[in-house]
Amino acid sequence: MNQRIIFHLDMDAFFASIEIAKNPRLKGLPVIVGGHPDSRGVVSTCSYEARAFGVHSAMSLFKAKKLCPHAIFVQGSYSSYGEISDQIFEILRSFTHKVQAVSIDEGYLDVTSIVHEFGGTLNLAEQIRKKIKEATSLTCSIGIAKNKLVAKIASSLAKPNGIYDVPSGYEAAILAPLSVQCIPGVGPKTQSRLNHDGIFVIRDLAALSVDDLILKYGAQGYHLYKESRGEDDRSVNFENRIPKSIGAETTFEKDLSDSTILENYLYELTEKVTKRLKEHKMRAKALSLKIRFSDFKTITRSRTFYTDTNDFKTIFDEAYLLFKANHLQETPLRLIGVSLDRLNDSWWQPTFWD
Description:
Elements: E1 6-11, H1 14-22, E2 31-33, E3 45-46, H2 48-51, H3 61-67, E4 72-74, H4 78-95, E5 99-103, E6 106-110, H5 121-136, E7 140-145, H6 148-158, E8 163-165, H7 171-175, H8 188-196, H9 202-206, H10 210-217, H11 219-228, E9 245-256, H12 259-279, E10 283-293, E11 298-309, H13 312-326, E12 333-344
Parallel strand pairs: 2-4, 7-8
Antiparallel strand pairs: 1-6, 1-7, 2-3, 5-6, 9-12, 10-11, 10-12
Helix pairs in contact: 4-5, 10-11, 12-13
């Protein structure tokens, strides 16, 4: 059985980053989302420039103003945040259907069965981050580990805009020097109690026996014992929902013009999306081909199949025809992408009259 590989993806200062993307003049400034500083509201999120002054989520806007008087306060548009969140999770599901959303701006992915397709965990994580950046102009951080607990802690270590990969077997060693507040679920009260008992970093917890911890902290002591060792057997609870499309693309390290090499990439991309289509037990009615030229001009061309299909040869033949019709010989390309659209889990069989 393969070792589980879990990603925890966390968007960087999500609401504030969206406001900055909408208004680039805010870049590099302390931005606080939540409303007018004289209101009785709280900070929804803030930019890293504001965090440098001690501002954080759930803090009163009044206190945030005192800590950072020159901050720019934004009311926020929560409906647009939800739309962008939906867009991000659609991107995640284009890689794998094993996605668990835990909030508007973070989620887990079980990538155990697909990581080999992308040449390793770091390559896959970088492709996910790149696709999100291209679609939304936003950055995210990804933690990689064999379980959800360590992956979540790793993503916080990767912030902002980074990747942190915890190799299997090194969980306890990496957690050991971290503050106990890094453990998900250890809030200010629990941290204060642990500190009072002389427990400040995770290695302090790991030095205690399970019996000692249960005696001191009851049922929570058992969980602290396991967490201090980086142990977690929870699964990624994904909804096996029907994706709207299944796509794959590759950006070349340098522009390519050789038709044979480009057609090989097209073959591999088509093979990849067809495999995912079959994993979902679905068929597609349409195909889209994306081409980006060396001058960054990008075109997308589509074809509709005669019938719903998950047959590789049928899909590749159509992708190849689209490619030949839109790529002039020896024209350098930066990117090729293939997407299957109009997906369904039924099958329309053409009749004699069709």
